[in-house]
Prior knowledge:
mainly beta
Amino acid sequence: xxxxxxxxxxxxxxxxxxxxxxxxxxxxxxYEASAGDRRTVKVxxxxxxxxxxxxxxxxxxxxxxFVKVSAVNRCxxxxxxxxxxxxxxxxxxxxxxxxxxxxxYKVRVWPKDNSRYGYLYAIDxxxxxxxxxxxxxxxxxxxxxxxxxxxxxxxxIDMAMFKDVVPEDCAISDFSAGNWSVDWVxxxxxxxxxxxxxxxxxxxxxxxxxxxxxxxxxxxEIPSEYPMISAHLGSTQLIIVNQSVDQRHYKVTVxxxxxxxxxxxxxxxxxxxxxxxxxx
Length: 280
């Protein structure tokens, strides 16, 4: 493990994202949205031979548990390179704290424009793992809080819980596949992955090096005359636009943690690719 004290705020954040795909841990965390929704969740997280195994159990409210198994680089572009997030965020170490009994650096990641949100992280000094995260809309205030209250690094985890779960596979490997174009995204966002399911859903994931958003395009029975739908799940914005192409209807959904105006502009920019036919 690299000496965390020698790393800049930006390096700590980059390391934080990588560590979550390398480290085994289990713990209990709390999640709280600005609307007052608060949950306590138990997680077991294992990485073996490029595959992430995760069990998540909700500790309060209705009983809910799920197991997920997926490749670390599932559907990722072979030519993907991490975007230079410092062009669009300011990174600062603003102090130290203790979370779940562990020493952590407090890191602020603040947007340079109004198309994205800011983050306050507490990053474990020993492992680089994120122990706490707060999502902030600079114009409004805090939107959500995530914090571990107990965590065990490199524990013994019974893999039997994952024996009947098949790793999620990528439906396609050619990133150029698909018949849709996303004509506008905030500066700095690049596509990470794309897949087309057997049911005809096209899914595209974008990142700016800090946050991600997804585009889903599904066959639909609803014609394009229906108005755009805007909603949110916690701090995640959902924009749904209906489109019709050659008498076929599609539902276009943009989902991500950024301002509603950003999500709406992305959704309106999505259009089918026009195939040019050369006539002899």
